[in-house]
Amino acid sequence: MPKLKFLSTLDSEFGATLDRILQVEQETAGSIEASVDEILAAVRAEGDAALVEYTNRFDRTSVSSVEELALSRKDLRVAKSLVDESVVDALTQAADRIRDYHERQKNESWSYIDDFGNRLGQKITAINSVGLYVPGGKAAYPSSVLMNAIPAKVAGVDEVVMVVPCPDGLISPVVLAAADIANIDRVFKIGGAQAIGALAYGTETIPRVDKIVGPGNAYVAAAKKKVFGAVGIDMIAGPSEILIVCDGSVDVDWIVMDLFSQAEHDELAQSILISDNEQFLRAVQSRIEAVVEDMPRKDVISSSLTDRGALILVRDLNEACQLVNQIAPEHLELSVADPSKLIDQISNAGAIFVGKYTSESLGDYCAGPNHVLPTSGTARFSSPLGVYDFQKRSSVIEVSRSGARELGLIAATLAREEGLEAHAASAERRFK
């Protein structure tokens, strides 16, 4: 039976207790590090041969070439035909909403002429190629395919390459249907650290990409960390989180299910409820105990809520907002009678769900904004995945004849102050 920790900001030990609840082990086990090092080195040195060996070993297959692991557009469409029509329709509607939202994020190139006739500006270009890692095995996440691939396509990425593990040769047709709907260019049935290595370094069959996005297990996360620099990565995602601020004006059952919606992900997921209404907090705890046994993933939910969940009593909703900014949650629900009074006080949150009708689960699938969000407090300095993650900015500088003199004098003065004579001479040669 789950028993969330009950905290009050009036308690003398509140800060220390909250810190312990928020803390999650981020260190990668040494055995995982060693395995990932070995796999990445083999893929870099041996290419396709290493991919075949590791895929046969870890996914229990018996392929002889990487070409056997490639899926064509026809394969994707055949898989889509096996998916229930209502699911395909839901995926299509979700994709349309995600695309429409992300179209509005596109940056544009710009320039201006200054007083000396110099043209200064910014040139926006898309990343050339992106690798998308999609988890397989225990669960299928077609929504992650849409959320990662569609912003890349909107940004103008030329080639999106998807990799997905297929234990025992099995793959979810819904994931492939999502790949078709998102118009992914190439798909390979490869997973684990070896897939990350292939995308980072390239092999005879799999192209090297410029950036890798998408979630994975501890081996995938460790591999992404290690290849960063050879390629870009999106982020290293931690366990899923929800923080709900509620004043007691919302149905208890709604809030309970919202807490469950994150707790059912895994035992390390975190669900926190903050309120200025103690009676409401007690009612939520009682309702959790009454309905958790009816949930298919009750054991996972119970473990998550007991180990990392919390009910927090605050003096008022202003204090709740201060606490939100301290925690910097992945998902924040403002389930209060008048959320407009609170939203301007929030500066640290991955996604903000405003008002009692806005459940976080809508954001996971079809609201439109991206569900790839900063976790573990990184919303203090990070943002949701978006089109901007697949575009890069180049500065554009075109100096006029008169500008060469005006700017050259400034540059030469500063260069000599830094002891860099060649810099100064380079600037002065244009006007002397």
Written account of the structure:
It is a single chain. By secondary structure, this protein is α/β, with parallel strands linked by helices. The chain contains 17 helices and 15 strands. The chain folds into three domains: 5-26 and 238-367, Nitrogenase molybdenum iron protein domain (Rossmann fold), CATH 3.40.50; 30-233, Rossmann fold, CATH 3.40.50.1980; 399-428, no CATH class. The strands form three sheets. Strands 1-12-11-10-13-14 form a six-stranded parallel sheet, with helices on both faces. The radius of gyration is 25 Å and the shape is globular.
Protein topology:
Blueprint: E1 5-8, H1 14-22, H2 30-46, H3 48-58, E2 70-71, H4 73-81, H5 85-103, E3 110-113, E4 119-126, E5 129-133, H6 142-155, E6 159-163, H7 173-181, E7 186-188, H8 192-201, E8 211-213, H9 218-227, E9 232-233, E10 241-246, H10 252-263, E11 270-275, H11 278-291, H12 298-308, E12 310-313, H13 317-327, E13 331-335, H14 340-343, E14 351-354, H15 360-365, E15 391-398, H16 401-417, H17 421-428
Parallel strand pairs: 1-12, 5-6, 5-8, 6-7, 8-9, 10-11, 10-13, 11-12, 13-14
Antiparallel strand pairs: 2-7, 3-4, 4-15
